[in-house]
Amino acid sequence: MPEPDRPLGPIMQILVPVSDVDRAAEFYEHVLGLPLLFRYPGNAFFDVAGVRLYLARPTEPGYDGAATIYFRVADVTATLGLLKSRGATVRERPEVVHRDPEYDLWLAFVADPDGNNIGLMREAPKGLEAG
Fold first, then answer.
1. What is the model's pLDDT at position 1?
2. CA angle, residues 100, 103, 104, in degrees to nearest 5
3. What pLDDT was estimated at residue 3?
4. Domains and CATH numbers, the chain
5. 0.85 exceeded by pTM
6. Residue 20 CA to chain centroid, in angstroms?
7. Cα dist. 103→9, 51, 55, 72, 123 in Å?
8. Which of 13, 58, 107, 118 is the most buried (most CB within 10 A)?
9. Going by C-beta distance under 8 Å and a sequence separation of 6 or more, which residues neighbour residue 29?
10. What is the pLDDT of residue 7?
């Protein structure tokens, strides 16, 4: 819960701007495997471990934002292979992007149909050849 000096609580919802909600919803449901919560014309909502992912075509003049969403995964390499087999476009192959004394941070990216980034990340045991 929010505290007086930290008024923001957990993230409840994230907007991902898309040009075609039907096409994007198909990708998020069938390629990424996210559960669809509900839809209404021009909008689709998915559950991501209790956070709502909101797909919509922005209507505000001048809005040109793109989203990057990072998902924690058990195995970056295996997850990337699964998403690729489902039709995802690989943007960046798995690599270690940070070496902490306790873990190696693995990261890979795919793109959704609108070019939004979908990051796959894992704090993995040190020294793995594939994350």
1. 53
2. 80
3. 66
4. 13-58+67-124 (3.10.180.10)
5. no
6. 17
7. 28, 26, 33, 14, 6
8. 118
9. 35, 36, 46
10. 60
